[in-house]
Amino acid sequence: MFHYYDSTGRDFGWHREPNPHVDGLEHYQERDSPEGEYRYEPVYFESQSPIDLLWEILGRIEDRVVDDLS
C-alpha cells in the first residue's frame, strides 16, 4: 500500500489488497477532503517487482502532486 496525504488535503493512494469497491486487488483511491468519501478505481502496475513498483508509484505521486500545483 502506498498512501499519500498532506496539509493541503490531498489524500490518495494505490493499494494492493481486497476491497469490496473494486474488482481485483490493485486499486487507486482518492477523496477531496478528510470528511469526504473515497472514490475507487481499479489500476494496473507494469511490474510486480518491489523496487520497480516503488519507482512506478513514486512517479505517479509526483505526477499527481505536480498536476495539482499547475
Structure description:
Helix content is 29%, strand content 29%. It is an alpha+beta fold. Strands 1-2-3-4 form a 4-stranded antiparallel β-sheet, with no helix packed on it. The termini are far apart. The mean pLDDT is 88.
Could you give the order of the helices and strands? EEEEH
Given the structure, what is the number of helices? 1
Secondary-structure-derived class:
alpha+beta
- What is the CA–CA distance across the termini? 27 Å
Quaternary structure annotation: single chain
Strand order of the largest sheet: 1-2-3-4
**Helical content band:** 25-40%
Mean pLDDT over the full residue set: 88
Low-confidence stretches: none
What is the 3D form? Answer: flat
Number of strands: 4
What gyration radius follows from the Cα positions, in whole Å? 12 Å
Percent of residues in beta strands: 25-35%
Q: Which sheet architecture does the biggest sheet show?
A: 4 strands, antiparallel
